Amino acid sequence: MRVKICGIIQPQQSLAIAALGATALGFICVPTSPRYVTIEQIQAAIAPLSDKIDKIGVFANSDITEISHIVTTSGLTAIQLHGDESPEFCTQLRQALPQVEIIKALRVRSLEHLQTTNNYIDVVDTLLLDAYHPQQLGGTGKTLDWQMLQEFKPRLPWFLAGGLTPDNIIDALSKLHPNGIDLSSGVENSPGDKNLDKVALLFQRLNTF
Ligand SMILES: O=C(O)c1ccccc1NCC(=O)[C@H](O)[C@H](O)COP(=O)(O)O
């Protein structure tokens, strides 16, 4: 299973978190986020990492020129679209960056809204389900309604996100079967400052599951 730790700011934490077992690290390229990182910060965080680790840039409603510039200059290997990007936008992004994994995040508002993931099946590689918050785009610590996801079995691999912590992860995985999990605030001291003891506890719990 893929394990993504998102919202990394400090280069030394990226190496430590990869060493603890993360398969993917997320870098927030959304300027309004307290976890926002510049191209230079991403380069510094990515430099010591092995090729096996996925380096995911998180964007929200950015244009293709900007995404392409950040991805190609920083060394990111995947793009997570966390805003209101349409399937048409995803198709154009694929044409611009054919080698890069595209992950479409959906901030799930309702069961009906969840069905909109069907529109992305042919145009992205991976889906990510996050919790909806009226004021914040992500990193909210808010948990999804797992009951609502019981029947969610898309044709694409998917990440479960939203309020996951070392304390609730086993409960989540005993109810749902995502291909990956994504944690941010549940393993932090404060936005962008990851708590390595909590990250270690997460992998300890995952290893016993
Ligand atoms: O984390 C942010 O600050 C953020 C800001 C704007 C768009 C997306 C953002 N995060 C996206 C993520 O992938 C987070 O890992 C995801 O929302 C889960 O966060 P959390 O509930 O804190 O585990």
TrEMBL record:
<dbReference type="GO" id="GO:0004640">
    <property type="term" value="F:phosphoribosylanthranilate isomerase activity"/>
</dbReference>
<dbReference type="InterPro" id="IPR011060">
    <property type="entry name" value="RibuloseP-bd_barrel"/>
</dbReference>
<comment type="pathway">
    <text>Amino-acid biosynthesis; L-tryptophan biosynthesis; L-tryptophan from chorismate: step 3/5.</text>
</comment>
<keyword id="KW-0057">Aromatic amino acid biosynthesis</keyword>
<dbReference type="InterPro" id="IPR013785">
    <property type="entry name" value="Aldolase_TIM"/>
</dbReference>
<keyword id="KW-0028">Amino-acid biosynthesis</keyword>
<dbReference type="Pfam" id="PF00697">
    <property type="entry name" value="PRAI"/>
</dbReference>
<dbReference type="InterPro" id="IPR001240">
    <property type="entry name" value="PRAI_dom"/>
</dbReference>
<feature type="domain" description="N-(5'phosphoribosyl) anthranilate isomerase (PRAI)">
    <location>
        <begin position="3"/>
        <end position="204"/>
    </location>
</feature>
<comment type="similarity">
    <text>Belongs to the TrpF family.</text>
</comment>
<protein>
    <recommendedName>
        <fullName>N-(5'-phosphoribosyl)anthranilate isomerase</fullName>
        <ecNumber>5.3.1.24</ecNumber>
    </recommendedName>
</protein>
<keyword id="KW-0822">Tryptophan biosynthesis</keyword>
<dbReference type="InterPro" id="IPR044643">
    <property type="entry name" value="TrpF_fam"/>
</dbReference>
<keyword id="KW-0413">Isomerase</keyword>
